[in-house]
Structure formats: structure tokens, C-alpha cells
């Protein structure tokens, strides 16, 4: 990299030339778009973006985060909270998800076919909340292991007739490790054997002390079956959202995470994406994990065709060359050519590392051969 024009450098840094010109101006250099920059100037500008200039590859295009555009503080607006429900088996996670969905989604949406896409949105007091409908533990463990953070708030369901169980503790640990606010839903309070006080007592031992006892953990007694307390639970989610002030920029190119993906006989690769920042539009060139394409069609959680999807919105898309994996990151890029380049390069890197993995002789493989 001996010299580059401002336009070429902007391209390598995935920035607008005008931004580079502005940066140069701030450094006291008046430049035009076609002006060529020497090595020192290139390094100086690159370092402003935290990019190290190497002789051959200035930017690792396979790093999806390098394609994410910066946000201006002024463009940030409030976005819906993204909520995951976790808890011990049979404590009522599925019943709660269904109950919230049935009471809130269908209001005013008569005739709307609700379909399972792995996430849904409800509206409460004119505000939206996004629920991840995938098994909570899977969402946390696989996605977090892959560096994707999708959940803002975790609801831990504890059956009032059963109390804290091993998977309850596991859920608490996941939420704590991810530093995500926890709301405790003490479920099945309709049951004669329900003992909510015991649940609070047991959770205190895990550092979750109810507000009533001087702590700061929100406990909401509910019955996922009768619907009692669910409105309070939703209000509490809104409250936490207000305190945490989750924000995003709807004006920028979209990025986010794959919630679910599969191959559909008729439609090809189908992926449910959670848009975490920006707005995703039909026609957008996109890289999703190691796959790429152009968003052909988008369907929302009500099964309706939509043209765009803003922050915290789950949508199902088609138009990818391959099926990505849950937890994969996605990024909209500037054009289809870039999408192909990045997608193919990423697939190549993965293939190469799989080959290396296979050819590596470990103790296990040695013993297998013996
Ligand atoms: P999950 O394993 O956590 O998804 O639990 P499910 O939602 O499948 O619920 C397990 C069982 O508990 C089912 O038979 C539900 O009908 C029942 N159940 C869930 N919530 C309540 C509740 O609030 N009250 C009562 N009485 N039963 C419930
Ligand atoms: Mg379930």
C-alpha cells in the first residue's frame, strides 16, 4: 500500500469519501476525492478508525463487524426491548409465551395468521416488546458462545408449587454472566400448593432479593394458565426498558443476529433475523454468517409481507445462497458484489479451518486408530 486515493481508502475502510475528507480536514489537510494519499497519511487515517495498515490486506473483509456503519448519537432512538424466557422444565415457559402472544398479538389483528418464526412482538401501552420464542437456553448458550448478544431482559419462570430447581439456577447464572436484567415470574399461583414466599426465600440465596425485602429484583406473581398477573409482568418489562434506555439507529444499514434458519423446499434458505440496529429492506445486499444474497422477501411474525424492518424487529427472509446458523451475525453491505465477496471469503475461511481441524491428529484420534 504505497499510495491510495481518498476514494480508494474510503472504500477499504468501508466509509464514505466525504467522511475521510472531513477527517483529513480536521487534521489540517484539504483534500479532494481523487487526491492520492501517501503511506503516512493512509496510516494516520486508518488509525483513526482503529485499523492497522498491513502491506497486503489493509482490512479483513471477512470480519463482519468491519462492515457495520458507525452511528451518530443524534440518530439513536428508543427501540423495543428483546426478552428471553428461561426456567426449569415444566415451570411454564411455553405456556407463558403462548399466553402473552395470544392475549396481545391478536388484538386488532383479526385474520392475521400467526406463524412460528422464532420470535414475536406484542404491543403494550403503545410500546412494543420483542419476545424470543426459541428455547431460552439454546438462544443463550449457542448465541452467547458465538459472541452474539441478542437478549436485553431475561424473565426467569419459577413454578410456585415447585420452587428453585437446577435449571432455574442455570438460567440465573446465564443471565448474570451476560449481565442482563432479570425479572422473576413466580408462576402457577392459581395452584392450591403454590407458595410464592418460598420461591422468594430460595432465590434470595442466589442473590436475587425482592424489592419488598430491600433488594432490587423484580418479582411478579403470575398464572400463565389463567392470565393473572401477565399485564403486570408486561408493565415491568416496559419499566426495565425505560430505565435501561435501549436505543438504536433506524437510519443506518441493518445488522443483527440469526434466530432460526432452515431449508424450505419451495423457498430455499429461510432465516429469521432479529434486526438489532438499522432498518432492513427488501432488496438489501446482505451477508449472513457465511451465506450471502439479496433480501428477496420479508415476512413478519404475523405472516404478513413487509418491505422494511426496524430495530428489535424479527423478520423471516429469503434470498440467501445457503442456510446460515442460529446465532450467526448478519450485516447489510453496500452492494451485491461486496456481499458475494465477503460471503465467499468467509465460507472459504471456515472450510479451511475445518480442513485443518480434520487433519490435526489428537490423542483421541490416535486412540481411535489403535
Ligand atoms: P415449560 O417446560 O417450561 O415450557 O412448561 P410448559 O409451559 O410446557 O408447562 C408445563 C405444564 O404446566 C403444562 O401442563 C402447563 O399446562 C402447566 N402450567 C403452566 N403454567 C401454569 C399455570 O400458571 N398454572 C397451572 N395450573 N398450570 C400451568
Ligand atoms: Mg416448553
What does this structure look like?
GTP binds at residues 87-94, 133-137, 187-190. It is found in: Cytoplasm. Belongs to the TRAFAC class translation factor GTPase superfamily. Classic translation factor GTPase family. IF-2 subfamily. It is built from 10 helices and 19 strands. The chain has 370 residues and is α+β, with helices and mostly antiparallel strands. The strands form 5 sheets. Strands 5-6-4-7-8-9 form a 6-stranded mixed β-sheet, sandwiched between helices. A 6-stranded antiparallel β-barrel has the order 11-12-18-15-14-19. The chain has a two-stranded antiparallel sheet with strand order 1-2. The termini are far apart. The structure holds guanosine-5'-diphosphate (GDP) and magnesium ion.
Counting DSSP H or I runs of 4 or more residues, the number of helices is 10
- Largest sheet features: 6 strands, mixed
- What average pLDDT do the residues reach? 88
Q: What ions, cofactors and ligands are bound?
A: guanosine-5'-diphosphate, magnesium ion
Q: Categorize the overall geometry.
A: elongated
**Structural class by secondary-structure content:** alpha+beta
- What is the helix content? 25-40%
The succession of helices and strands, N to C, reads EHHEHEEHEEHEHEHEHEEEEEEEEEEHH
User: How do the strands of the widest beta sheet line up side by side?
Assistant: 5-6-4-7-8-9
What value does the Rg take, in angstroms?
24 Å
Amino acid at each position: 500500500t504505497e499510495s491510495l486515493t481518498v476514494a480508494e481508502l474510503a472504500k477499504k475502510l468501508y466509509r464514505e469519501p466525504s467522511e475521510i475528507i472531513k477527517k483529513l480536514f480536521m487534521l489540517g489537510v484539504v483534500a479532494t476525492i481523487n487526491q492520492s494519499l501517501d503511506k503516512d497519511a493512509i496510516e494516520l487515517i486508518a488509525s483513526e478508525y482503529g485499523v492497522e495498515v498491513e502491506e497486503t490486506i489493509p482490512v479483513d473483509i471477512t470480519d463482519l463487524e468491519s462492515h457495520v456503519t458507525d452511528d451518530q448519537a443524534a440518530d439513536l432512538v428508543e427501540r423495543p426491548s428483546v426478552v428471553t424466557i428461561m426456567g426449569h422444565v415444566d415451570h411454564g415457559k411455553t405456556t407463558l409465551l403462548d399466553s402473552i402472544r395470544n392475549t396481545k398479538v391478536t388484538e386488532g389483528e383479526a385474520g392475521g395468521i400467526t406463524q412460528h418464526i422464532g420470535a414475536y412482538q406484542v404491543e403494550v401501552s403503545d410500546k412494543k416488546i420483542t419476545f424470543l420464542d426459541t428455547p431460552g437456553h439454546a438462544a443463550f448458550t449457542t448465541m452467547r458462545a458465538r459472541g452474539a448478544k441478542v437478549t436485553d431482559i431475561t424473565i426467569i419462570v419459577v413454578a410456585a408449587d415447585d420452587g428453585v430447581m437446577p435449571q432455574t439456577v442455570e438460567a440465573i447464572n446465564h443471565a448474570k454472566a451476560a449481565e442482563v436484567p432479570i425479572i422473576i415470574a413466580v408462576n402457577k399461583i392459581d395452584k392450591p400448593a403454590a407458595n410464592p414466599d418460598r420461591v422468594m426465600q430460595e432465590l434470595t440465596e442466589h442473590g436475587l432479593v425482592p424489592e419488598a425485602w430491600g433488594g432490587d429484583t423484580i418479582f411478579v406473581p403470575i398464572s400463565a394458565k389463567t392470565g393473572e398477573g401477565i399485564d403486570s409482568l408486561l408493565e415491568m418489562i416496559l419499566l426495565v426498558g425505560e430505565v435501561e434506555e435501549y436505543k438504536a439507529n433506524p437510519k443506518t444499514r441493518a445488522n443483527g443476529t440469526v434466530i432460526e434458519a432452515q431449508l424450505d423446499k419451495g423457498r430455499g434458505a429461510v432465516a429469521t433475523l432479529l434486526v438489532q440496529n438499522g432498518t432492513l429492506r427488501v432488496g438489501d445486499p446482505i451477508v449472513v454468517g457465511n451465506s450471502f444474497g439479496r433480501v428477496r422477501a420479508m415476512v413478519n411474525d404475523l405472516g404478513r409481507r413487509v418491505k422494511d424492518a426496524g430495530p428489535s424487529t424479527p423478520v423471516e427472509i429469503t434470498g440467501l445462497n445457503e442456510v446460515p446458523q442460529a446465532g450467526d451475525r448478519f450485516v447489510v453491505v453496500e452492494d451485491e458484489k461486496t456481499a458475494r465477496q465477503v460471503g465467499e471469503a468467509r465460507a472459504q475461511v471456515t472450510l479451511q479451518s475445518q480442513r485443518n481441524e480434520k487433519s490435526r491428529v489428537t490423542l483421541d484420534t490416535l486412540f481411535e486408530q489403535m
